[in-house]
Amino acid sequence: MSDDDQLIVKDCNGTQLHEGDTVHVIKDLKVKGTSSVIKQGTKIKGIRLTNNEGEIECRVENIKGLVLKTEFLKRVNG
């Protein structure tokens, strides 16, 4: 993939996300197929980028391979 073809993934505020970033969830999210809810303010470490600019993959509360939409995430500085 050349530099021109780089996939740019952005959070709800338009901040670019990178592999391994830490993000916060900005609203309660129901997890499809389970009775789990990811609460607002949950910190998610070590995100993985997917081939879709509107989604990231992560692990939350023992749920592996969870895919979240970036519109519900805010990057944490530091």
Output the strand order for the largest sheet. Answer: 6-3-10
CATH architecture, please?
Answer: Roll
The largest sheet is: 3 strands, antiparallel
Q: Tell me the span between the first and last alpha carbons.
A: 28 Å
Mind telling me the C-alpha Rg?
Answer: 12 Å
Q: How much strand content do the residues show?
A: 35-45%
Number of DSSP helical runs: 0
Give keywords:
78 residues, mainly beta, SH3 type barrels, 3-stranded antiparallel sheet, globular
What does the model show?
It is a single chain. The chain has one domain (3-75): SH3 type barrels, CATH 2.30.30. 0% of the residues lie in helices and 40% in strands. The protein has strands at residues 9-10, 16-17, 23-25, 29-30, 37-38, 43-44, 48-49, 55-60, 63-69, 73-75. Strands 6-3-10 form a three-stranded antiparallel sheet, with no helix packed on it. Strand 4 (29-30) and strand 5 form a beta hairpin. The protein is globular and about 40 Å long.
Secondary structure: elements and pairs:
Layout lengths: L8 E2 L5 E2 L5 E3 L3 E2 L6 E2 L4 E2 L3 E2 L5 E6 L2 E7 L3 E3 L3
What's a concise summary of this model?
The protein has one domain (3-75): SH3 type barrels.
